[in-house]
Amino acid sequence: MDLQLKDKVVIITGGAKGIGEAISKTLAKEGVTVVIAGRNKADNDKAVNEIKSGGGKAFGVEVELSVVENCKKTVDETIKQFGRIDGLVNNAGVNDSIGLEKGDPERFLRSLQKNLVHYYCMAHYALPELKKYKGAIVNIGSKVSVTGQGNTSGYAASKGGINALTREWAVELLPYSVRVNTVLPAEVWTPLYEHWINSLPNPKEKLDSIVSKIPLERRFTTSEEIADTTVFLLSPRSSHTTGQILYVDGGYVHLDRAIS
Ligand code: NAP
After folding, report:
1. What are phi and psi of 201, to 5 degrees?
2. Measured from the CB, is residue 47 less than 6 Å from ligand 1?
3. What is the pTM of this model?
4. Same structural domain, 54 and 168
5. Residue pLDDT, tens place only, 48-60
């Protein structure tokens, strides 16, 4: 299937590592110019160089996205370099364990800035371009938005907000044919996941227990599997899909826990 993405310009927040990196590389293989917005220059450069050495087109913008002006800077820089924006992948985030009991209001607010506010700011600043080209937004969500996890109020509230904004923006942007969807992962092996599991008392035991509960093939979802669905949703081949939350999770959230 030709995804009709050639020569389009897409911004991927957190596009240098983990799920974002897989999305950047998959898009580049489809002929998309990818703009990687991430806070670590070395990581951005590495991903950009890998894409370029494979014949793709990529550009890095070094930004800490929890600062509002940096979202505008990312959009402005993309327009300056490439003259258009066809798609936005809101992906950067961190499960930062700001709980209710073990937390405080200031840290909760900062968690929203790290996980939710920049999704809004990026969409807000990119919208004039997306309107011109009937572009698409894909948000990366999390199972935590619907299952809870405990001791992570900021992240859970952010991911719940992302689900709500997906429907809200899908409605608001109907007149412009700008589509908005969310891809919702559960368990994907990435640098963020590795960091989280290693912060627990018995990482190996915990890992085995999690894998045993993933219904389809008792394995983690790969970043590439998240990327493939994301890329399809960005493409004109999903031209009548909007306001959807797609669970790319091996059945983790919805299938019966009693299955053997
Ligand atoms: P990751 O491995 O940590 O990669 C995220 C990338 O985004 C990193 O390069 C990170 O930079 C960057 N980043 C994060 N916050 C940023 C900020 N405020 N400003 C600029 N750059 C920032 O994470 P991942 O596991 O791929 O997660 C990507 C998305 O998937 C997140 O929204 C996460 O909530 C969601 N998700 C992941 C899983 C999973 O199992 N992995 C499950 C559900 C949902 P640093 O390296 O400097 O932190």
Report:
1. -60, -45
2. no
3. 0.98
4. yes
5. 999 999 999 999 9
